[in-house]
């Protein structure tokens, strides 16, 4: 059985990966070049991705112990 700390760490890493993939897909499919150069546009999307990952990580930090409890603690 997996311990709570490892589960929470994996949950948060998974959340960050999913959000990063979603931001990249949205940027590639629906993004428009608004900035003067491509480097500025890519930088904008990277910073926006980091900001969104930070927001979702706060929610993952709160939800991970609750999800662990619903999956593993009930079986004891």
Gist?
This protein is mainly α. Helix content is 80%, strand content 0%.
Instruction: For the record, give the distance between the C-alpha atoms at the N and C termini, rounded to a whole number.
Output: 11 Å
Mean pLDDT across the residues is 89
What does the radius of gyration come to?
17 Å
User: Which residue ranges are poorly predicted, with pLDDT under 50 across at least 5 consecutive positions?
Assistant: none
Which of globular, elongated, flat, extended, rod-shaped describes the shape?
A: elongated
What structural category characterises the helix and strand content?
mainly alpha
The run of helices and strands is HH
- Strand content of the residues, in percent? under 5%
What percent of the residues sit in helical stretches (DSSP H or I)?
over 70%
- The count of β-strands is 0
Q: Main sheet, how many strands, which sense, barrel?
A: none
**Count of runs of 4 or more consecutive helical residues:** 2
Keywords:
76 residues, mainly alpha, 0% strand
Describe this structure in words.
The chain has 76 residues and is mainly α. 80% of the residues lie in helices and 0% in strands. α1 (4-30) packs antiparallel against α2. The chain is elongated and about 55 Å long. 3% of the residues are buried.
């Amino acid at each position: 059985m997996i311990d709570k700390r490892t589960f929470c760490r994996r949950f948060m890493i998974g959340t960050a990966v999913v959000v990063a993939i979603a931001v990249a897909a949205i940027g590639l499919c629906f993004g428009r070049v608004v900035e003067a150069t491509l480097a500025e546009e890519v930088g904008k999307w990277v910073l926006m991705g980091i900001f969104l990952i930070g927001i979702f990580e706060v929610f993952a930090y709160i939800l991970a112990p609750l999800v662990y409890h619903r999956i593993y603690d009930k079986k004891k």
